[in-house]
Structures are given as C-alpha cells and as structure tokens.
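It is worth pausing here to work through a concrete case rather than discussing structure prediction in the abstract. The textbook approach is simple: state the sequence, then state the predicted structure, then interpret. We follow exactly that order.
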Amino acid sequence: MRNLFSTRVKVILVIAALLTAGLAILSGITNSTVPDLLVKGLLAPIRGAATALTNTAEKYYGYMFRYEALAAENEVLEARIAEMEDVARQADSVARENERLRQVLGLTAANEDFKLVDAYIIGWSSTDWENTFTINRGTNSGINQNMCAITATGEVVGLVTEAGLNYAEVTTVLDSTLEISGTISTSGYNGMVRGGYVDGTETLLRMNYLPSAAIIRNKDQVVTSGSTVYPRGLIIGSVVDAGFEETGVAKYALLDPAADISALEQVFIITDYTTDTGTTGTTGTTGSEATGAATEPAATEAATVPTTGATVPGAVG
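Step two, the predicted structure:
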C-alpha cells in the first residue's frame, strides 16, 4: 500500500514537472508569463462560448432583418397584385359595356324609332311571388312608370313599376303579377305571358289562353304582340314545354326567358317609340299589361289565330 502511494506521488510529481517545463518553454516562445498562460487557458473555453453565442445572435438578427425585409416586399407585391386585379376587373367591365353598346347600336339600327336610356342595377328584391330590381336612373333621366326594360339585344326584361327622381323599380318578366301579350312567331298564336307561379317553374314563364288545337313546338320563339307599353317583336322567350289548362278548353306553354335575369348588370329603358298605328308608346299608359290584370285575348285576335293541325298534349320537338 505504501509502495502504491509512492508511485502515485511520483506520477503526480512527474506530470507537474512536465507541465512546469512546458509552460516555461511556451512562456519563452510567446514572451508571456506563466500566470498569463494559465489565465488564457482558463478563459479560452469561455471566449469560445462567447464567440459562438455572438455568431448565433448575429445569425438570428440577420434572419429577423431579412424576414422584415421580405414582409415589406410581400406587402408591396400584394399591393401590386391587387392593383393589377383591379385593372383587370375594370378592363372586363369596359369590355362588357363595349359589347353591350355594340349590341345597342344594332338594336337602334333595326328600331330607329326607339329612344333608350341605359341604367345599371343597384339592388334586388326577390321572393317566391315577386321579382324586382332597382336601377340608378329615374324621372330626371326621362324614365317613368309603365316603360319597358330590355337588354342590349332586345330581350324583354320587365316593366318600370315605380319611378323616383334618381331611381326606378323594374318588375321582371319572372314576377307572377306581370302579364305581357305575346305571339308565337312561327305560328301566330297569341296568349298572355306571365311569371312562373307554380313550384318548380319559378325560373320559367307561362303563356296562357292558347287555342286547344294549337300546335306548339319546342324552341318556338315568343315575341311581344305590340301595345302602347311593349313595342311589337321584342323577344320574350322560347317554348320548352306545353299542356292543357285544367279546364281542357285552352292550352298553355312554358317558356325559357330570353333574358338571363340573374346575370343582368345593365338594362335599357324604352322611353319612347312609334307603334304600328303611328302613335307614340310608353306615355304612362295603364291597362292589363301595365297592371298585370289577367284578361282573355281579344276575340278579333283569336279569330286570326290558325286553328288547323292535330291536338297534342304538349310541345312537340
């Protein structure tokens, strides 16, 4: 045991001697004292840790600065994208309006007596029994009650039922209270057209009081018969189905409206036109078409309706 202790002491002494010699040699080479070398040796790990911490801090600071720069750049890009999207929307709007104006030019060329006022839709009111919208023009633009509203291609939209100074309310053809005297253009059969008021036909029109012997074909076009409210020949819709009234005495036809009511942005109000008899229309006329009262077609009109052909229960393709 005494020998083992002596050996340990010897080893320690040898190591101490070697360290002392090494420090002395290093001191001579670096011109530093032994205490300086000891301090530097003790501070080296701390200095390394501080350097690593500084580098990490600089890295995260650079990351945060870069993040802020990227966020600012992203905001600029988003603003530019929003501006470009706005320009694209305006371009689309201008393109649609130009197309409508070209169509209106064709409409006025074919109907030189029409005086039209354009208006944009600013509000809707639609229920199961009512279908109306508000436009941004009124009496100060020459628009009054009982004036016909059409699309740029001459499709019937509805009738002005209320007019204020700078607004007007239009009741559309889909409204169950509005009636229009119509004619099947291919056969000359006359009837009264009103909005679909039965479940399942809310988006369709119904043409009543057609002769029981009338031959009604799918895709037959129905136009306005002409009155002091609606000029003659405006497109109302096309036949998609037909059948007999409950009484079995007359027929009816279901029509797909020519005007896509739900997609409308702009309409044109006919403020003045010349009727077939040479009189001026849209002068505040009241009557069955303006008020929506259900009336049978005149007997004189019925007498001119073709009545030949086999009776069919519905439209034939």
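Step three, interpretation. The chain has a mean pLDDT of 76. The radius of gyration is 45 Å.
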